[in-house]
Amino acid sequence: MSYPTIADCVGNTPLVRLQRIIPAGRNNTILLKLEGNNPAGSVKDRPALSMIQQAQARGDIRRGDTLIEATSGNTGIALAMAAAIMGYRMILIMPDNATMERRWAMEAYGAELILVSKDSGMEGARDLALQMQQQGQGIVLNQFGNLDNPLAHYQGTGPEIWQQTQGQVSHFVSSMGTTGTIMGTSQYLKEQNPAVQIVGLQPADGAAIPGIRRWPQEYLPTIFDRQRVDQVLDIGQQEAEQTMRQLAREEGIFCGVSSGGAVAGALKLAEQVNDATIVAIICDRGDRYLSSGVFAPE
Description:
By secondary structure, the chain is α/β, with parallel strands linked by helices. Helices cover 37% and strands 17% of the residues. It is built from 8 helices and 10 strands. It has a 6-stranded mixed beta sheet. The protein has a 4-stranded parallel beta sheet with strand order 5-4-3-6, sandwiched between helices. Helix 3 (100-108) links the parallel strand 4 and strand 5 (112-116). Helix 2 packs parallel to helix 3. This is Cysteine synthase. It comes from Bacterioplanoides pacificum. GO terms for molecular function: cysteine synthase activity. InterPro entries: Cys_synth, Cys_Synth/Cystath_Beta-Synth, CysM, P-phosphate_BS, TrpB-like_PALP, TrpB-like_PALP_sf.
């Protein structure tokens, strides 16, 4: 008898229906893909495993090599898990304003952490990763330019959504950070039905939402193709956090701030369309954000 490994448990996450906070009168269905149900707790489990597996299959890396990646949190945790499964040393570089839960999770999987200042941000973390690679300290996986990132969603997330909705999905809503999720899922869904509308979310001016970015042009992920996104919505800090708390208290869905932003975007969309099946990504779990205070009573 063959038993699965933890790697076999990545993907095939539930798709659930919003019940209480959906706008009335337009006959829309809002469905949420619960990516926090992945083994390391986020949608990033998919590309993390894909990037290491594909690089290993090509012979670009070998067990025992040192891998390096800049991360704001979820990708780092997922890569730390994947490296533990497959026998790699993992160095993660992240801004020092990340929640302690994220740091502790990475260290629990055996990763080494290097912190850069909040002011340096993800741009500084990415620069340092490339500098370390140039110095021979390891190999950068580069989620921002690695086609194995969207490939994971083209092969997994997109087909799952299509099957779980029996081809009825009309709109797909996703926060945009590295943009791997929206790129791979968009490609697959558009191949099945070009009429499916792809909606990406970016932070409004002044918002600092983990997992959603408005990149300077020179740091824009090279995997991103604007033509694969039909509409871009700006999401404010307050509406993302309020929706996140509302999801926990009224729907029993405990998720992070970027997921709150994704659902806020889906709810905006649901006020503009009729008879739609809207799918949004719940990219992680809320327990990663408890120490930040975002779930404290308002």
